[in-house]
Amino acid sequence: MALLSDFAPLQVQPISCAPVLKESVHGALKRAIMDMDIYGSSEPLKLDERRLAENLGVSRTPVREALLRLEQEGLVSMVPRRGAFVVKKTKAEILDVIYVWAGIEGMAARLATIRAADDEIASLRDLVESVSDSSQVRGSIDEYSEANIRFHQAIVSLSKCSLLSETAEGLFVHMRAIRARTIKDRGRARSSMSDHTRIIEAIESRNAGKAEQLVRDHALRLAEHVEANVDYLE
Q: Mean pLDDT of residues grouped by 10 in the chain (234 residues)?
């Protein structure tokens, strides 16, 4: 039997009782999983159902229901007689996620050149310029990592395609986790910043083909990096 110290430290906040309690619990747990450093340790990430219920201020029933729903979404694995665990993908599975993401985000960039307003595109540049100074990047890689993740989320959002966004959401937890981990590898942040600048320029110029290609190539370089350098995945 696992000790309390063996459970993954999922950070959640209390939820007040309301008609939308189930949705609130599900959303809180999903956001907490997204914020985790999933691949920061080789140890299994077990979730303590009792502690989660206490932290959320609810009974264990909506927590259990939320965990089952998260299992259906591929984020949690319910193991008989062992409990709930955050899903960790293998290296091969992560590569497949990146390949699919490359296609999705590439199409999002193409649609953004057609559908996004000028001020919306300008918000992409604001994200990049907020952490563009190289010394700042070196001093706060975690801050840049978050800006990097917001940048890719923004491109998907600017597609203004709800079906595409919904499809991307199913991949985003693991894309976020692997990006947050690999951006700290040598040279990755600088290379990422350069790629982002070129992507923004292509979207600003409404060059759909170039924007799609640049975004797709950017993701595929991540896949190449994972293939060649990531040895902490099974």
A: 60 65 92 88 90 93 94 93 92 96 97 97 87 54 80 96 93 90 83 92 97 97 93 78
The strand pair at 46-47 and 83-86 is best described as antiparallel
Reference 36, options 210, 178, 170; nearest CA is 178
Question: Which domains can be identified in the chain, with CATH numbers?
Answer: 4-86 (1.10.10.10), 91-229 (1.20.120.530)
- Angle 208-209-214 from CA coordinates, rounded to 5°: 100
Of 183, 197, 173, whose CA–CA distance to 148 is shortest?
183
* Owner of token pair 């559908």: 115
Q: 182: which DSSP letter?
A: H
Q: What single-letter amino acid sits at 54?
A: E
